[in-house]
């Protein structure tokens, strides 16, 4: 006879030495409604399954099932315990699926840092492919200068970055794989006075209004070099900002000019926002590449994104 208890203690399940197997039997009994079928589905003998059911009923002091002609029917206590047991088992199945997904690289969070050019040329297609093929990988993109992004990578805020090795770059702490060269283009608003089909030289641009990245950036240094090579001081009328959005907006609404990454310039021209101005000198910010922290192993999800990046680069080269 089952001893009746008034209340269950806070840790009744552990005190009664119950295990997950007891909950599995409970769920199987609800599904099959016959003890021998439930036992067989779990690979148990009928007496073993019966013993597990008795353990549960003894622990709570109530009958969980009543016998009827069509099989076992739950009592109110059986319904309560079964509902909770099924939820626990479902959560464990969910944990299994998540762990397997993480190990297979289908679930996780990947933070990527990038300078402007690769965002347009490579990462846009990488992010689209990741969302389509691996929708449970959460992707976070952070834009900025190589100096800024390297600091973020070093402190663990980024998993990878597409940028340039700066003078302080320590090759013992990072791996670097060159991906390409970031070409730069001079841009202005549509209908800009410098747009009319002619090529301009650096000297003509000296008195123009500019929007440039702040001092210390590679792009700002390249612009300064252009004027120094022409025997001129850098322009005096400069708005300094590291915000690409501010740069594009200001240039589109004024006669100011700027030098931006070629992929950004092409995209803005295609959208009708800005125009590429013809400069008599080719400008480049130099080579950029994939930078990874050598002291920190990549997660499975990061490996998936790296493969998508390799696929996107291969498609770009073939196209």
From TrEMBL:
Disulfide bond as a keyword?
no
Q: Which residues form the HTH lysR-type domain?
A: 18-75
Domain of life from the UniProt record: Bacteria
SUPFAM superfamilies, per database record: Periplasmic binding protein-like II (SSF53850), Winged helix' DNA-binding domain (SSF46785)
Q: Which UniProt keywords apply?
A: DNA-binding, Transcription, Transcription regulation
Q: Which Pfam families has this protein been placed in?
A: HTH_1, LysR_substrate
What does the record give under GO molecular function?
Answer: DNA binding; DNA-binding transcription factor activity
Q: Which InterPro entries match?
A: HTH-type_LysR_regulators, LysR_HTH_N, LysR_subst-bd, WH-like_DNA-bd_sf, WH_DNA-bd_sf
One GO cellular component term noted in the UniProt record for this chain: cytosol
Which family would the database say this protein is a member of? Belongs to the LysR transcriptional regulatory family.
Protein name, per record: LysR family transcriptional regulator
Origin species = Lichenicola cladoniae
